[in-house]
Amino acid sequence: MYFEELFDLKKKQIEQGESEKGIMDLMGKPLLPSNFTLLTEPGPMIKANYESSATDSKGSVPTTTLTKQEILGNAFIFLFAGHETTANSIHYSIVLLAIHLAKQRHLQSDIDSIVGSKPISEWSYYDDMPRLFNSMPGAVIHEELRLIPAILNVPKGTKGDQVVTMDGRQFTVPDRTFIHLNIVGTHRNPRYWPERPNEFMPERWLPSQTPSSNGAEKKEQVVEKETNGADGLESASFETSGSTSLIKPVKGSYIPFSEGARACPGKRFAQVEGTAVLSALFHKYSVELNVSEWASDEEVEKMDAQERGEVYKKAVDKAEMIIRRSEQIITVQMLPGDRVPLRFVQRGKERFGGI
After folding, report:
1. pLDDT digits (tens, 9 = 90+) for 251-274
2. Cα R_g (the chain), whole angstroms
3. Which of 118, 150, 193, 354 could form a disulfide with 85 if both were Cys (CB 3.0 to 4.6 A apart)?
4. Which of 138, 118, 158, 163 is nearest to 270 (CA)?
């Protein structure tokens, strides 16, 4: 119903010459600033629907266009395909940071060193975001997707016979073979992740003065050039100077967004969104596991550091068990009924900061 309403609204806006200034709209027709170069025609999908009655140069054969149902289907993919996956990634990242409080403090330290006390409204996409992405916020997103990818397998198919070399041996994969890339097995393969592959270690993505022990080839470039269709348009979302980059693992050993020509087109958007949410959230707040199942607030207040550590360990054990039970329900998520209760507190008011 929402997409039917959206379609009718956008079509009406075009008919009446209405538009929203500065909004880039896949369905409707935007009015863009004079210094903004649009990569596609304004309102490409609705425009395509308008052309459904067009004819060719001879005035008889209709041109190939999008039907209304095709537009609604594409709009759903554009608007929602990456919504649940990114939300789940952020969700698991927050839970993992509540479990690993020392790593959360490391994250907050990096955020502070980059933006200081600057209000979030003044953060710069071009100056601050690349530095945040290439420090602990980006490392947390990378590590969460390594341990808990959005989906467990990536379906692929061969076109023609393909020769694959593995450990010096050649194998021929026949034409039209259906292949599933095992993301979980790949991401925890000790051959490429020798340093505690089953543990949450976002610092493994941070460059150091010594060679990395996680199978890294070289540092990941701040600017990743991605091909957008046949036009060969390049995306340089994180272009900046003087930024330290995250470690780049051996090609093929890290595939949460798949790889190659059919890799996820929303990779950069997901990375930006995850980095922005974690940075904004932990700039002001800390997150802790809720221990009320084992101790009341009053009881926690009376505990010494050792006692608090013991009760927090119970919450950590339960949270880790719930995470291990996660299954792919469209995307990887906690089972229905499973929950890890959290408490968000202003920084400086943590109850378990010293454990």
Report:
1. 999 999 998 888 887 888 899 999
2. 24
3. 150
4. 138
Cα distance between residue 58 and residue 255, in whole Å: 49
**319 and 184 in a common domain:** yes
- Give per-residue pLDDT as tens, 100-152: 999 999 999 999 999 999 999 999 999 999 999 999 999 999 999 999 999 99
132 and 279 in contact (C-beta within 8 Å)? yes
Q: Give the chain's domain count.
A: 2
User: Do 37 and 130 share a structural domain?
Assistant: no
What is the spatial distance between Cα 318 and Cα 84, in angstroms, rounded to a whole number? 24
Q: DSSP letter at 175?
A: T
Report phi then psi at 299, rounded to 5: -70, -40
Looking at the structure, do residues 249 and 292 belong to the same domain, yes or no? yes
Tell me the pLDDT tens digit for each residue of 48-78: 665 554 455 555 555 557 788 888 887 777 6
pTM of the model: 0.75
**Residue 100, CB half-sphere, CA atoms under 13 Å: how many?**
19
The SS3 call for residue 51 is helix
Instruction: Tell me which residue has tokens 């919504």.
Output: 83
Residue-number span of the structural domain to which 49 is assigned = 2-53+65-80
* Half-sphere exposure (Cβ direction) of 250: Cα atoms closer than 13 Å: 13
**What CA–CA distance (Å, rounded) separates 75 from 79?**
6
Least Cα distance to 100 among 199, 1, 26, 30 occurs for 199
48 and 65 in contact (C-beta within 8 Å)?
yes
Q: Which of 72-76, 121-125, 222-226, 300-304 has the lowest mean pLDDT?
A: 222-226
Q: What angle do CA 224, 225, 229 make, to 5 degrees?
A: 135
Whether residue 42 is found in the same domain as residue 112: no
CATH, residue 91: 1.10.630.10
